[in-house]
Amino acid sequence: MWTAVINDHNVRVYPNWVAPDFFATMQIPILLGRTFYQNEKHAMIVSRSFAREQWPGQNPLGQLVGDGKQKDVVVGVVADAHMNALNDDDALEEYWPAADEQMTGMVVVARSDGAVGNLSAAVKSISESLDPKLFPEIRSIKALYSESVVQIERIAGQSLCWGWLQSAWLAWVSSGW
Question: What is the residue-wise DSSP string for the chain?
């Protein structure tokens, strides 16, 4: 995640490096333009929120994004998915084509009609055939979202406790003790 200043206010931007079939796999609709071509470079796809914030009232397709000598062209706009920030309605997402030489780690997303346990053996077998040193951690999307919700609930609970303690302290001080 990084923070950008767009139209005079700070926004959180979440970058994602994805394969061309990522959007179909995750059922994220392509609203405008297209997905990436295999091995494409200097292209990017943005979320609807990103496009609205960065280019209000304009067509985002063909817009150039980047600093200095490297500029990427917007080839698509996808629905807001909040892939990295479940609890952040203001988050903007941008996507670039994944390139092997840039990847130091990755998350592989697979969709299945069955239980996640049915995929475990296949995913482990494939990862071992690519690199025996890989140790994939296999979790369902539901589990990942549950972890995000638990964090939100924990923060809310702590805030509630802190508020209660402040109220109790103020009541105690006001009573003349």
Answer: -EEEEETTEEEEEEEEEE-TTHHHHTT--EEEE--PPTT--SEEEEEHHHHHHHSTTS--TT-EE-STT--EEEEEEE----SS-TT-TT-EEEEEE--GGG-SS-------SS-HHHHHHHHHHHHHHH-TT-------HHHHHHHHHHHHHHHHHHHHHHHHHHHHHHHHHHTT-
